[in-house]
Amino acid sequence: MAEKSLFEKICDREIPAEIIYEDELCLCFKDISPQAPTHLLVIPKERINRLAEATSDHQNLLGHLFATVPHIARQEGFLESGFRCVINSGPDGGETVPHLHIHLLAGRKLEWPPG
Question: What pLDDT shows up at residue 102?
């Protein structure tokens, strides 16, 4: 059995996090190193290491993650002002935790290009 990811440990409440949303398939919590005034992470409870490893078997779960984002944005008060979603995949993509997650950034004007 593979070692638990940091995010699996958060889901299992082995590591504390400031959780702002949870349902049967996903969890959303505040990033500990925010890159915007609001920086949340939306993760599936089922571990998918990275977006590049997602398959058609994950289609419903991935759809659920993205359908949950507007709900969280409304709950947190930035649905109308706008937000950015970012998914890093692989070392060159900036991935630091091997567990698929959506960075949800808001609270200031986000410039382009991002990085």
Answer: 98
